């Protein structure tokens, strides 16, 4: 096609005289305009959310649904309200959005989750001899609710809160992990991981309350030696309690011990 | 974070979850039914656990149960040949601690390192194993302090009281040590004598005690 150097009219657009370079520059302008508009919107929103969190700090602290919604809102705009939460008032690491949030949200929300995390760690430590380091999130919640201090003693704590509090511990290391067992969620506070057979038996125990070697053989199709080996492991790790007064020795999950 | 327990618990394992002995027990507590903790319905509680970590925790729970039960029922002494039927057993789940295991538990609790809540009462013949023990839901020292405090507050220092009065007198009806075993009271008074806070005159039934 003969090139038409006259850059007017419709033909101008099919004219390859409009170079890729021009497109690129135009795109760049659009992008930076958008980015600027977005940054402005975001900072307006951040300011609004900051004021909101200050005004409603009390609600955030005391109302678990409110808290959950607030957290979801923060996550929806790509911000973690807890990032850098244990660095109060300082610039935080590298000025990332997370640590800016920590400053903006004020101490109230951070304190709540941090204190909660400390209480969770305490409960796990106190009960370790009884349950081998595996404790249901719901049991932790019940124990904390019964306790005194800022956490518990009237403040509603949900299972959700507990898991969030544990997440805030992740940067500190410490090996606390959420382990699903059947339909329950457990916190594992010891470094040793359960292998598949051990997890399976613990899951069965969650459902049935206790197991015998025969039950494992019958329900899981295991050989006797395999069932015995797994049970021995669980006993050795103080994850289960032994009842030798039944017709066949029964192995119980300590989760039921303090129910009610 | 402070632990919630302020009453004596075995020093080796503290737990914010363990129930301490009640701080005040007024009148006939048998009128109020003892509430058994949930773990007494947990069948493995009556099997001595093979895992030693688990066993240590189990023994702490037994210690708590023993002290709260005895405090509630005002039992100062346990005799192995006539134990309360629902202390070491839960008939509703058909589980009970065997006699040898009961002995093991009591022996463990008798160790000072485990709180010394139990003390074997020596038999007349050294060769025999003891068959009864004191249960110190209050330690002898705590009893000594309580009794001396009462004597002081009621202005009875310098007066002579009989052991019977101290144990069963009208004036002590609302006191925790009401109905205490004679032998235990003598032990407690012995502590006060050693401290120079009391003196005992006479023997046995006619014994009198003077506090300073």
TrEMBL record, chain A:
Top-level taxon of the source organism: Eukaryota
Localization in the cell: Cytoplasm; Endosome membrane
GO BP terms in the entry: protein transport to vacuole involved in ubiquitin-dependent protein catabolic process via the multivesicular body sorting pathway
Any one Gene Ontology cellular component term annotated for this protein: ESCRT II complex
Alphabetic keyword roster: Cytoplasm, Endosome, Membrane, Protein transport, Transport
Main localization (coarse): cytoplasm
Membrane topology: Peripheral membrane protein
SUPFAM superfamilies cross-referenced by the UniProt entry: Winged helix' DNA-binding domain
Cross-referenced Pfam families: EAP30 (PF04157)
Family as reported in the entry's similarity comment: Belongs to the SNF8 family.
Physiological role: Component of the endosomal sorting complex required for transport II (ESCRT-II), which is required for multivesicular body (MVB) formation and sorting of endosomal cargo proteins into MVBs.
Known partners and oligomeric status: Component of the endosomal sorting complex required for transport II (ESCRT-II).
Protein's recorded name: Vacuolar-sorting protein SNF8
Organism, scientific name: Cryoendolithus antarcticus
Automatic annotation (TrEMBL), chain B:
One cellular-component annotation, GO: ESCRT II complex
InterPro entries documented for this protein: ESCRT-II_cplx_Vps25-sub, ESCRT-II_cplx_Vps25-sub_N, WH-like_DNA-bd_sf, WH_DNA-bd_sf
GO MF annotation list: protein homodimerization activity; structural molecule activity
Keyword vocabulary terms for this entry: Protein transport, Transport
Keyword Protein transport attached: yes
Presence of the UniProt keyword Transport in the record: yes
Biological processes, Gene Ontology terms: macroautophagy; protein transport to vacuole involved in ubiquitin-dependent protein catabolic process via the multivesicular body sorting pathway
Domain of life: Eukaryota
PANTHER family: VACUOLAR PROTEIN SORTING-ASSOCIATED PROTEIN VPS25 (PTHR13149), VACUOLAR PROTEIN-SORTING-ASSOCIATED PROTEIN 25 (PTHR13149:SF0)
Membership in a protein family: Belongs to the VPS25 family.
The name this protein goes by in its record: ESCRT-II complex subunit VPS25
Source organism: Cryoendolithus antarcticus
